[in-house]
Amino acid sequence: MTSYTAKLASLIASRICHDLISPVGAIANGLELMSLGGASNGGPELALVTESCDYASARIRFFRIAFGAATDKAMVSRNEVVAVLQTLGAAGRVSYDWAPGGDLPRREVQLALLALQCVEAALPRGGEICIEYQPGHWSVTGLSDRIAPDPAQWQQMERIAVAPVPESEEPVVAPNHVQFVLLPLLARELGRRPAVEEAKGRLTLTV
């Protein structure tokens, strides 16, 4: 994958997320109006649809940050990241602890969310993911009673990270594992390299 195709992919992701978030947001507003109007007396059916809509909106916002185009000057607020992760965590088997205390450059947050997805792929039974940041350094730790990283994906990430010319390492990856290709490419642009450490019940990815 060349840097050009990676940037083109990020632009496509941005466009898709941009076009999806507006109608999903409109649905959420409509559901809120229905609730205020007493539709179904706020019954379980409306609650289920509202919950699903909130999850879809959070997922799109997550993807827009993780896979969308990012400029050097763009920032992401802590409140936005925490709100997205809280919504996703409430609907899934993984909870998230976002430790950074302030707003951060979008490219940094993008790096963190790609790393988060790599770690999450190693938690088949769910668990907790803790994300910590020091200037120029992310530490993303997955905690679970079962840690099961896919060797092929992590080895491919390492090969791309160390390849003299990343374009020479043609990725072989399923769509749900694309983060293992994008993470080392973005890390290289920022002068960093991902590293992983595994122990009983714990997997830590630093970048």
UniProtKB/TrEMBL annotation:
Top-rank taxon, per record: Bacteria
Matching Pfam families: HPTransfase (PF10090)
UniProt xrefs under InterPro entries: ChpT_C, HATPase_C_sf
Protein name per its UniProtKB record: Histidine phosphotransferase ChpT
Residues annotated as domain Histidine phosphotransferase ChpT C-terminal: 79-198
